[in-house]
């Protein structure tokens, strides 16, 4: 047996995941593990020249929704295009196991409504070769990917599986229901679940408009499930709360964590309705951590923003009667009609009407932007369509209308609705620097026609360490550690996120000066030609998973060393 490394990365500038200063070193890899960091004299079977390049651990994205995609695809794009080498799915309480055959449609409609993954895509793509959560894990364990995948047990699926129609309509769970859910939750951890997820936000509804089954689940139910899971092995309770009930639900979730010793992780954002509430939330988190709770705040890297357009799920005129009359037409035909002066005049003369769609915001043109090329996610207030219209002496609706017609009807508008109450990202800067926070909420695999945030890992590096001009920046070592080591530890993956001997050989080689995000575009590459927003990226010279190069120069190599992660992982 030879000691020759399988791969040596030569002379790169390392941000090693510790948060310490950058330094120049070689990295040797053998049998999927890092064996040496420093001056490596031995030649590798394969070598990557990284002089002048940034070398980082692979990024760990703890908030994705690839639960369906992993069943039909081996390439976990777009996350794998953005340096992510481990993705954790099953967030927000939605997923596809456990599930009885009679409930397939119910869970599909929930995923479509909550995460904007089209029902026909899910119906055609998911093979449903499982019923229980352990069955789902066993089935996934036989598949190979271009990154590692970790799974969480989704509360909505579990609740419907145990309680049937009562669970779907949000009835309180009985003591017998709780025992059954707790037993299955323990089984899930023993089969490799990294955690359990739930949602208590009013924005999470099925495609038919019903609220998520977990919306009002009782403290007794959550305590039984969390206790059983953490009793079976290390697992995280991930949740999403609603601003309107945060004052009640956050203390309850902290009580659940305290009584079960279960680590918790949840999203913290700035909301326009209470733009300073995030400070109180982080203070509560840090106070709880001081009492010994293991708690993590997931922070979006930029505004959570809607993309509106004629090719997308929503646009500002979708409730106008004259637009509704042609909304069913194929894009080319619709564009031709929209270019007719009489149609334009009719639509612009009408106003938005009411809808129960939680992601349709009555247009506020003082909060709406043109995203631009390169895309700019931190634009000043004078760049809003409202401000531009006032400067030009026209109506903002006209600017929005014409912008969407650009590019043969593929123009997009950008509406930041979280983390942008102040017209800048200063609040996000403070949130990211909180000791209890990690980057999160990229929603990779979800929101196919309205949000495109799987590029968060790249944005963290480009905007926050290099390009930001409207406020303070973050250092490269800080950002790399935040989205590799800190995220990994938050879900119990101690074996990754560091460039050090003995750790998993998940690595990025990045041309930092060339790292660049392109504007989002619609691709029709999901099952049955389903639509999704994708964002091309330049600058990743190589992404390495378990010692094998999965992407080189932005292109997939065809290597798929990624596997399903079975439970918390220690360093070998």
What is the element layout, followed by pairings?
Blueprint: E1 7-14, E2 23-30, E3 33-38, E4 46-49, E5 54-57, E6 59-61, H1 69-72, E7 84-88, H2 104-115, H3 119-125, H4 133-140, E8 148-150, E9 152-154, H5 155-163, H6 165-168, H7 175-190, E10 195-200, H8 219-232, E11 236-241, H9 246-260, E12 264-267, H10 277-290, E13 295-299, E14 304-308, H11 321-324, H12 331-338, H13 341-349, E15 369-370, H14 385-392, H15 396-409, E16 413-418, H16 426-433, E17 437-439, H17 456-467, H18 476-490, E18 507-510, E19 516-517, E20 521-526, E21 530-534, E22 537-538, E23 540-545, E24 548-552, E25 555-556
Parallel strand pairs: 1-4, 1-5, 6-7, 7-8, 9-10, 10-11, 11-12, 12-13, 13-17
Antiparallel strand pairs: 1-2, 2-3, 5-18, 14-16, 15-16, 18-23, 19-22, 20-21, 23-24, 24-25
Helix pairs in contact: 5-7, 7-8, 8-9, 14-15, 17-18
């Amino acid at each position: 047996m030879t000691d020759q490394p399988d791969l040596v990365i030569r002379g790169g500038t390392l941000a090693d995941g510790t948060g310490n200063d950058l330094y120049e070193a070689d990295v040797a890899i053998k049998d999927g593990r890092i064996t040496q960091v420093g001056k490596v004299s031995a030649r590798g079977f394969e070598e990557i020249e990284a002089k002048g390049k940034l070398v980082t651990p692979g990024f760990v994205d703890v908030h994705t929704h690839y639960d369906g995609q992993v069943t039909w695809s081996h390439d976990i794009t777009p996350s794998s295009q953005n340096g992510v080498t481990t993705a954790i799915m099953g967030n927000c309480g939605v997923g596809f196991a456990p599930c009885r055959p009679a409930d397939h449609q119910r869970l599909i409609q929930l995923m479509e409504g909550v995460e904007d993954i089209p029902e026909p895509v899910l119906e055609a793509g998911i093979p449903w070769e499982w019923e229980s959560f352990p069955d789902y894990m066993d089935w996934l364990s036989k598949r190979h990917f271009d990154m590692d995948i970790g799974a969480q047990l989704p509360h909505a699926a579990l609740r419907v599986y145990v309680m049937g129609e009562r669970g779907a309509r949000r009835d309180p769970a009985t003591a017998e229901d709780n025992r059954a859910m707790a037993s299955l939750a323990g089984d899930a951890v023993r089969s490799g679940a990294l955690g359990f997820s739930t949602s208590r936000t009013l924005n999470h509804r099925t495609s038919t408009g019903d609220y998520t089954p977990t919306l009002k689940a009782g403290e007794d139910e959550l305590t039984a499930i969390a206790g059983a899971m953490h009793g079976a092995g290390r697992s995280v309770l991930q949740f999403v709360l609603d601003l309107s009930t945060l004052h009640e639900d956050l203390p309850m979730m902290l009580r659940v964590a305290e009584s079960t010793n279960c680590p918790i992780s949840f999203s913290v954002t700035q909301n326009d309705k209470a733009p300073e509430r995030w400070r109180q939330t982080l203070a509560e988190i840090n106070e709880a951590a001081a009492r010994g709770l293991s708690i993590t705040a997931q922070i979006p890297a930029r505004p959570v923003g809607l993309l509106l357009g004629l090719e997308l799920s929503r646009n500002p005129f979708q409730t106008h009667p004259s637009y509704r009359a042609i909304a069913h037409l194929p894009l080319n035909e619709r564009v031709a009609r929209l270019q007719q002066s009489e149609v334009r005049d009719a639509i612009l003369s009408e106003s938005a009407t009411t809808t129960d769609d939680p992601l349709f915001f009555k247009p506020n043109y003082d909060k709406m932007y043109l995203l631009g090329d390169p895309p700019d996610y931190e634009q000043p207030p004078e760049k809003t369509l409202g401000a531009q219209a006032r400067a030009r002496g026209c109506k903002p609706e006209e600017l929005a209308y014409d912008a969407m017609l650009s590019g043969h009807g593929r123009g997009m508008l950008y509406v930041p609705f979280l983390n942008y109450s102040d017209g800048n990202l200063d609040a996000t800067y403070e949130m990211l620097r909180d000791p209890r926070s990690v980057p999160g909420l990229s929603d990779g695999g979800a929101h196919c026609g309205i949000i495109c945030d799987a590029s968060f890992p790249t944005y963290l590096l480009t905007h926050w360490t290099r390009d930001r001009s409207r406020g303070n920046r973050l250092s490269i070592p800080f950002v790399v550690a935040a989205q590799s080591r800190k995220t990994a530890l938050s879900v119990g993956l101690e074996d990754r996120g560091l460039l050090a001997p003995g750790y998993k050989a998940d690595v990025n080689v990045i041309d930092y000066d060339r790292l660049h995000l392109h504007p989002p575009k619609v691709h029709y590459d999901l099952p049955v030609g389903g639509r999704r927003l994708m964002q091309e990226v330049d600058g990743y010279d190589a992404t390495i998973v378990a010692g094998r190069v999965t992407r080189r120069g932005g292109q997939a190599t065809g290597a798929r060393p990624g596997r399903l992660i079975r439970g918390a992982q220690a360093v070998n």
